[in-house]
Amino acid sequence: MLVAKELSYYPTEALEVKEKPRKKTRRVQEKKKKKNNSLAKLTIMSIPMVILGIALSILFRYANITAVRQEITNLERQKVELEKVKLDLVADLEGIKSSVKIAEEAVTKLGMNYPTEGQIVYVSINENKAEHVEKNSIGKQIRKVFSMVTNLF
């Protein structure tokens, strides 16, 4: 048996040297695994966060849409009410503008009456229009200038 011990293929010193690098590679591999695990955990945690962010943004948009719809319905309700008021005012205006209504109020409130035959004055027009046209044109121009000046004040 002595012979078998001496012929050993692997010396004890060589085995010790080889074992040390194996431990180092295992540690490096363990560190890589830890880094890979932390990256995997980070991605696993980030996916629900992204989904949560998307869900919250969708809910925010639906809330905005609902608020705008409520504002539209309120504005439509106001529009209908204003159209009713407009129709009432147009009806009142038509009643006020009618000539029969104006004549009645002139007689009752202001005490006005239609003119009698003695109150009517008829104006005659002369046949000499050429002389009057020249006089009237100068007079008209002076009146226009005077009316423009008075309108300024």
UniProtKB/TrEMBL annotation:
Coiled coil regions in record: 65-92
Membrane-spanning segments: 39-60
Keywords tagged on the record: Coiled coil, Membrane, Transmembrane, Transmembrane helix
Protein name: Cell division protein FtsL
